[in-house]
Design a protein that fits this description.
- By secondary structure, the protein is mostly beta strands.
- It has one domain.
- Helices cover 8% and strands 32% of the residues.
- It contains one helix and eight strands.
- The strands form two sheets. It has a five-stranded antiparallel beta sheet. The protein has a three-stranded antiparallel beta sheet with strand order 1-2-8, with no helix packed on it.
- A hairpin with a 2-residue loop joins strand 6 and strand 7.
- The two termini are 25 Å apart.
Amino acid sequence: MTSLTSSGISVDLPQGWEAEIYRRPEDALTFSAGRGEACHAVFHAANFPLPPERGDFGSGAVEIMRSHEVLVILFEHGPESVGTTLFSYEGIPIPLDAADFSPDMMQRALVGQAGAQKFFTVNGRAFCLYVVLGSYANRQALVATANALLATLDISSL
């Protein structure tokens, strides 16, 4: 197993997974940060090769996923999100359940795929967990695959 740690996020990657933790440059425009605002951590992990160019929520990766593959994204929001209703769940919301997944939860509908999105706060940090499964029909097995990775996830305060 390979360990990855950056920006207060740690995870042990099962064999066959690859991952990256990054921050957008402060002058880049992203979903949650405009120019001059702090950019927060983004974590991508997949049991398939991640393309070098991808959007924060997996565009560029979901299009190449096959039915047996999983993409896990952790997107940090700013401190202004902590304490809001959307981020009121305390702790990492795991394990995920197959019932959490739906084709309607995809950022962009792709035939056969399903997604789940959970918002939470841990150690004073607000996150969105977004998981994409390559096959809605095979969600039971794929959720177990995602949960094996998520069970190793640790988020510390900064």
